[in-house]
Write a structure and sequence with these properties.
The longest helix is centred in the last third of the chain and has 25 residues. This protein has six helices and two strands. The N and C termini lie far apart (79 Å). It has a two-stranded antiparallel sheet with strand order 1-2. By secondary structure, it is mainly alpha-helical. It folds into two domains: 60 residues, no CATH class; 40 residues, no CATH class.
Length: 117
C-alpha cells in the first residue's frame, strides 16, 4: 500500500490541509509526493501557484522547513531596516496628506511647524 504523503508531517505536528495537498498534487502532477519533490519546485513556483494564498504558502513553507528544506531567502538586517523605514515614511506621508486635507500646513524640517491656515 502506498504511503500517504503527509505521514512524516503528521509525526512532526505539521500537516498540510486538503487544499494545500491538492494544489501541490496539481503542481507535481501526481497524487503522492515527498517534501523534497515540493522543495524542488522552488519558492518562485510555489508563490505563483494558483489556489495557494499567502497563508497556504506560509504553511507549505513551514511544512518544508520541518523537513529540512528552507526555501525562504535569507533577509539581511539592512533589508529589514530599509523596509521598516519605507513603512514609516509611507505612514508619515499619509498623515501629512490628511493634515493638509483638513487645512493644516505641514512644514519640514523642525519641530512644532504644523499650523492651521
Amino acid at each position: 500500500m502506498a504511503r500517504h504523503p503527509t505521514t512524516e508531517a503528521q509525526a512532526l505536528g505539521l500537516e498540510l490541509n486538503r487544499r494545500e495537498l491538492n494544489v501541490l498534487r496539481r503542481l507535481l502532477n501526481r497524487a503522492e509526493f515527498k517534501p523534497l519533490d515540493v522543495a524542488r519546485l522552488g519558492l518562485a513556483r510555489l508563490e505563483s501557484a494558483p489556489g495557494l494564498g499567502e497563508k497556504g504558502l506560509a504553511h507549505v513553507l513551514a511544512w518544508l522547513a520541518g523537513h529540512g528544506h528552507d526555501l525562504r531567502p535569507p533577509v539581511s538586517t539592512d533589508a529589514r531596516e530599509s523596509e521598516r523605514q519605507d513603512r514609516i515614511n509611507r505612514r508619515l506621508e499619509h498623515a501629512q496628506h490628511l493634515l493638509e486635507q483638513w487645512g493644516w500646513q505641514v512644514k519640514r524640517p523642525g519641530r512644532n511647524n504644523a499650523s492651521r491656515e
